[in-house]
Design brief:
Helix content: 25-40%
Radius of gyration: 17 Å
InterPro entries: Class_I_gatase-like, Peptidase_S51
Family: Belongs to the peptidase S51 family.
Order of helices and strands: EHEHEHEHHEHEHEEEEE
Pfam families: Peptidase_S51
CATH architecture: 3-Layer(aba) Sandwich
Distance between the termini: 18 Å
Keywords: Hydrolase, Protease, Serine protease
Low-confidence stretches: none
Mean pLDDT: 94
Strand order of the largest sheet: 3-2-4-5-1-8-9
Protein name: Alpha-aspartyl dipeptidase isoform X1
CATH class: Alpha Beta
Length: 238
């Protein structure tokens, strides 16, 4: 059974690292009696420093955490993992590295066929969707494809924010950029996750969680505000 937590951001003003999601993280990991989480730090270049950042919050939550880079065989590490966490950074770098290490199929199988928990934040949330086409990141490297894990059959835009009406910056707004994506023939729904909110997926049920609302964009429809605890399960049938 699919057991996912897709977070907009690990850092939210007024909260410690991952603190805003701690209750949902514990909920996800409690389903499978997880003791150790496999962390995939490929969205940043300094893997050891990144592992140090995430170790303390997971320790506080009551879980051990290990970095996939500490294993000689990353595919084997995924195959033995009790749960997976992929953090934020550069989405293009993350996806390119997942391709290089042949991890897309391994992660997808463990999550969708074996039912281990998957937690993603920011870039880790982007790669959990069908593609990274709606990331906010700069393409500092070029992955073989923008297609990603497809743990959910739609796109997410983490860190979603609406531009103020009187904003000094007059470039394209986030809404305009998402609208450009929706004009593409292959485009499906895009869930804009504001800071402080996250999507909880359990089997065929998806619910918005956190402390903020989200915004749903769908081809041919007006954008819709999604409130906390609102059911989004229909997106899983896309």
């Amino acid at each position: 059974m699919r057991n996912l937590l897709l977070i907009s951001s690990s850092r939210v003003i007024g909260f410690k690292y991952l603190e805003v999601a701690q209750d949902e993280i514990k909920n996800v990991l409690s389903f499978n009696s997880v003791s150790t989480v496999l962390f995939i730090p490929y969205a940043l270049k300094d893997y050891d420093a990144y592992l140090n950042t995430v170790t303390q919050p997971f320790t506080d939550f009551g879980y051990d955490i290990e970095g996939i880079h500490e294993h000689e065989d990353p595919v084997e590490a995924v195959n033995k993992a009790e749960a997976i966490f992929i953090g934020g950074g550069n989405t293009f770098l993350l996806l390119k590295t997942l391709y290089e290490k042949n991890l897309l199929g391994a992660i997808r199988k463990r999550v969708l066929e074996n039912g281990i928990p998957y937690i993603g934040s920011s870039a880790g949330t982007n790669v959990a969707t069908c593609s990274i086409n709606t990331t906010n990141d700069m393409p500092i490297v070029y992955p073989p494809s923008f297609k990603s894990l497809n743990l959910v059959p739609f796109n997410i835009n983490p860190h979603y924010i609406e531009s103020p009406y009187k904003a000094v910056h007059k470039g394209e707004t986030r809404d305009q950029r998402i609208a450009e994506f929706l004009q593409m023939e292959e485009a499906g729904p895009v869930l804009g996750l504001r800071e402080g909110c996250m999507l909880r997926v359990t089997g065929d049920r998806a619910v918005l969680k956190g402390i903020n609302d989200a915004k749903l964009f769908q081809p041919g429809k007006e954008p819709k505000i999604i409130k906390v605890n609102e059911d989004l399960s229909f997106l899983l049938n896309n």
